[in-house]
Specification:
The complex is a heterodimer of chains A (about 500) and B (about 300).
Chain A (H helix, E strand, L loop, with lengths): L2 E12 L2 E12 L3 E5 L6 H8 L7 E6 L2 E3 L4 H7 L1 E4 L11 H8 L10 H15 L14 H14 L4 E5 L7 H16 L3 E6 L2 H7 L2 E6 L2 E7 L5 H9 L21 E11 L5 E11 L3 E5 L6 H8 L5 E8 L2 E2 L5 H7 L1 E4 L3 H5 L6 H6 L9 E2 L2 E2 L1 H14 L16 H13 L5 E5 L7 H16 L3 E5 L3 H7 L2 E6 L2 E7 L5 H8 L3 H7 L1
Parallel strand pairs in A: 3-8, 3-9, 6-7, 7-8, 13-20, 13-21, 16-19, 19-20
Antiparallel strand pairs in A: 1-2, 1-4, 4-5, 9-10, 11-12, 11-14, 14-15, 17-18, 21-22
Chain B lengths: L1 H7 L2 H26 L7 H19 L2 H25 L4 H23 L18 H5 L3 H5 L4 H19 L1 H11 L1 H6 L4 H28 L10 H11 L4 H23 L6 H5 L1 H11 L20
Helix pairs in contact in B: 2-8, 2-11, 2-12, 2-13, 3-4, 3-5, 3-11, 3-12, 4-11, 8-9, 8-13, 9-11, 12-13, 12-15, 13-15
Classes of the chains: A alpha/beta (about 500), B mainly alpha (about 300).
């Protein structure tokens, strides 16, 4: 096999943190090379070094045998290296065509012949079997199509090596299949793909070769034909992992079901002013976990925000223990025992610039014993923060450290610790495991199950079907703001959920 | 009531609207570039004042308004670089920087006027821009009557919305500006130099704000007095928001504010028994009322007011 890209001794250091430690890697022409590793293993940093976002401190990069200097993304693009970032690099209120053109601008001032360029892009899309409406604005597209735009962008710049950073994290099972087909097609045309993931099954399915990364180093490279799955996991984690110990289903008997939360015919608008939640009705019983599945952007976020008091419901009612709490302010909801673990933890879950200790105070700073006659009780607060840190095993060296410097998993633990310590009756958790590694994910699951068994009701929004089926008692699927299906978690399977998420209600009801 | 109607239902009132709108239009259209690129330019007021002052002094000194015009463009270029240096390079707060600039401009122009011209009994006048007759425009019905006999600045002002529309819709430069103002990180990853685009955009804003100021002196009164812009920079800024950052919208916005100014001047001449201050405050009240109806923030560029810091 011919080598397309070779890395020799790539080292990148951030402060005290060695993100990449003398990495050697070879990418062949026409292969899908999977870079597997848990969060923080240094996968993305390594790719940023190749794509010109970072400049490595040490090491050399060879492209088709010649040493190259990649100092900016443009340098990388000129060589033929294209990156599809985890957070899409698209301008939301420009059209698909404009975004693609933007990536290929050569001159600062030139007239754009949009008609001709459109024909060129359509031609390109046809040759790869990719289909997107070029005149739609990005914000109107579902995530899967946005990713497709990114891939077209990269191909428009004639990339020979395409790097995808956690591409399946935001996709439905169906969209994932589509992506895999596209990738296979690309490699069949002689292009190479680097596929970053922390999901084992995917790595095994799509990879021609798999390199395992751990603590900034590549520990081993396998050919996908002879992989020992156990060895792979051990290399990746550095230790064995156990299955979740929590009880599989709720202890509470169906006939004695006490309704904690009832939503009736709820309508909510999104930021663009269009109706995102269209007449949703649902119930959550005591000691029950209700999973909400759906492709991102089908109304989950708006529903959760409306329930948490952060977004106005324009129609319909929400009852908590038979009390009407429609559009009640967040403080009242919190006082009633409803806590919210928000989707975007940086924006709504914590204040990065505040210390870890101060972050524990958010939402209860005005309450006894945190404050007494308007004075904060620092001694008690510190004791409390230390206790929670110990209880939730949060890795933090100093409670006065700014919360933004914690890793993603530890930030989420902080939020969980803060919210769950209020002994909530209803927990609204939106994507609580997003971006977390296996250990942190497991921890979140265990905590949710623990509180369910203590009698709390939980709304659990996720895009990962595996975890939804594992943790929930019931699952509802949202599609275009409506409930496409409501199922018992035990009796359903991934395929059914996948169908419902793609909006194929008809097909499903016929089968039933 | 009939008096009022008679006062506004004639060609000369429309001409007054054009004259009153020109300074606002120049400053506001230029500001679109800056805002769409993500840099707030509340320093328009100060930039206009400096432009008004420098064009007056230079025309007064050289007795040539066109030399004054060219030097004002250069000064506007400098004002743009000044604002961009603070907001783009130093990443200083865009509002505070502009506040400082506005106060500095007021003090600087008033002081320099006293040093250069001194205190005089009669307002010294400078050479104004000559009026131009463009045959093609002259021949047009109505438009010809309104526009003919305007200075070059008026023609430039009323051409700019079209030029700006073309730039934003059909050129790579316009596309880059929009990308930089909406999602600088994405623009950066696609090989667009965010800081260079922002510099150019702010410089364009600086030049047109200075020209807007010049249209008050060499294109209008031919003399200068302290704080002569009297908040027109802020009104132009409001017109940009009112016009939702689009050339056509901003054009309509400046016409609205310009016509309210023309209207209040007419009212003053009617001899209504009211203090004239009430009439002069009309444009500002109209501005406030207009803002009530344009409070949607979803139209503003998402990265507006935020400095771009790479990586992290």
């Amino acid at each position: 096999m011919e080598t397309l890209l070779e890395l020799k001794g790539i080292t990148k250091v951030f402060g005290d943190n060695v993100a990449n430690d003398g990495v050697n890697l070879k990418i062949f022409k026409g292969e899908i090379h999977v870079l597997l590793g848990e969060n923080g293993a240094g996968k993305t940093t390594l790719m940023n070094c190749i794509s010109g976002l970072y400049i490595p401190d040490q090491g050399k990069i060879f492209w088709e045998g010649k040493e190259i200097q990649v100092k900016t993304p443009q340098d990388a693009a000129k060589c033929g290296i294209g990156m599809v970032h985890q957070h899409f690099m698209l301008v939301d209120n420009l059209t698909v065509l404009e975004n693609i053109l933007l990536s290929g601008l050569r001159k600062r001032f030139a007239f754009l012949n949009k008609k001709q360029k459109k024909r060129e892009v359509l031609e390109l899309m046809r040759s790869y079997g990719l289909d997107v409406d070029l005149d739609t604005q990005i914000w109107q597209l579902p995530v899967g199509l946005r990713q497709r735009v990114e891939i077209i962008k990269v191909l428009y710049n004639d990339a020979k090596l395409i790097i995808l950073d956690e591409p399946t994290a935001v996709l439905t099972p169906y969209e994932t299949e589509e992506l895999f087909k596209v990738l296979k097609f690309l490699t069949a045309q002689g292009r190479s793909v680097i596929f970053i993931t922390h999901k084992l099954e995917e790595a095994l399915r799509i990879g021609d070769r798999i390199s395992v990364m751990r603590r900034g180093k590549i520990v081993h490279t396998f050919s996908s034909t002879n992989v020992d799955k156990n060895l792979l996991v051990r290399l990746m984690m550095g230790e064995e992992i156990e299955e979740i110990k929590g009880k599989k289903s709720s202890k509470v008997k169906k006939d004695k079901r006490e309704i904690i939360l009832e939503v009736r015919d709820l309508y909510v608008k999104n930021d663009q002013g269009t109706i995102a939640v269209k007449g949703i009705s649902l119930e959550v019983g005591k000691g029950e976990i209700l999973g909400i599945a759906g492709v991102a952007g089908n109304g989950q976020s708006e529903l959760v925000e409306a329930l948490a008091g952060l977004r106005l419901a324009i129609k319909g009612n929400v009852y908590f223990k038979n009390k009407d709490i429609t559009n009640a302010p967040p403080r009242l909801l919190r006082d009633l025992g409803i806590v919210h673990i928000p989707e975007d933890r940086h924006k709504h879950g914590m204040i990065g610039e505040f210390s870890v200790k101060e972050n524990f105070l958010i939402g209860s700073y005005y309450r006894y014993p945190f404050s007494k006659r308007m004075r904060l009780q620092h001694e008690y607060i510190e004791k409390y923060a230390r206790m929670q840190i110990k209880k939730y095993n949060i890795k933090v060296s100093d409670i006065r450290m700014k919360a933004k410097y914690l890793s993603g998993g530890n930030q989420q633990k902080l939020i969980l610790a803060r919210e769950l310590s209020k002994f909530p009756e209803l927990i609204i958790a939106a994507y609580p495991t997003r971006g977390l590694d296996i250990f942190a994910t497991k921890f979140v699951h265990e905590k949710l199950l623990e509180y369910r068994d203590k009698g709390a009701s939980i709304i659990f929004v996720s895009s990962e079907l595996d975890e939804l089926m594992e943790v929930s008692d019931r699952i509802i699927v949202l599609f275009k703001g409506e409930i496409a299906g409501s199922l018992s978690a035990k009796e359903t399977d991934k395929k059914t959920l996948g169908f419902l998420m793609a909006g194929e209600t008809l097909l499903f009801s016929e089968r039933k | 009531m009939i008096d009022i109607l008679l006062a506004i239902l004639n060609i000369s009132f429309l001409q007054a609207i054009v004259n009153m709108s020109t300074p606002l239009l120049l400053a506001a259209i230029g500001d679109i570039y800056s805002e769409r690129a993500g840099v707030l330019n509340i320093g328009l007021e100060g930039m206009m004042l400096v432009g008004a002052f420098s064009s007056f002094v230079i025309s007064y000194h050289f007795n040539n308004p066109y030399i004054a015009l060219i030097i004002t463009i250069i000064i506007g270029f400098g004002l743009g670089i000044f604002h961009a240096f603070f907001t783009v390079t130093l990443k200083a707060d865009q509002v505070i920087t502009a506040l400082g600039e506005n106060i500095l401009a007021l003090g600087l122009t008033s002081t320099l006027y006293r040093i250069i011209i001194g205190v005089t009994e009669i307002q010294p006048e400078c050479q104004g821009l000559p009026v131009l007759y463009i045959p093609a425009i002259n021949r047009m019905p109505v438009v010809g009557d309104i526009m003919s006999g305007s200075t070059i600045l008026v023609y430039i002002a009323f051409l700019m919305p079209i030029i700006t529309y073309v730039i934003f819709e059909y050129t790579s430069f316009g596309l880059s500006i929009k990308a930089v103002g909406e999602n600088p990180k994405a623009a950066d990853s696609m090989g667009i130099n965010v800081n260079v685009i922002r510099y150019i955009a702010v410089i364009i804003s600086g030049i047109f704000a200075a020209l807007g100021g010049a249209s008050l002196t060499i294109g209008g009164l031919k003399y200068f007095f302290d704080n002569m812009t009297a908040g027109r920079g802020f009104i132009a800024f409001a017109a940009v928001i009112f016009g939702r950052y689009t050339p056509l919208g901003v054009f309509m916005g400046t016409l609205l504010f310009g016509s309210s100014d023309a209207f209040q001047l007419r009212l003053q001449t009617l001899g209504i028994q009211l203090p004239y201050h009430i009439f002069t405050s009309i444009p500002y009240i109209v501005t406030l009322l207009a803002m009530i109806f344009s409070r949607q923030t979803s139209f503003s560029p998402k990265a507006l007011g935020k400095a771009y810091v790479r990586s992290s």
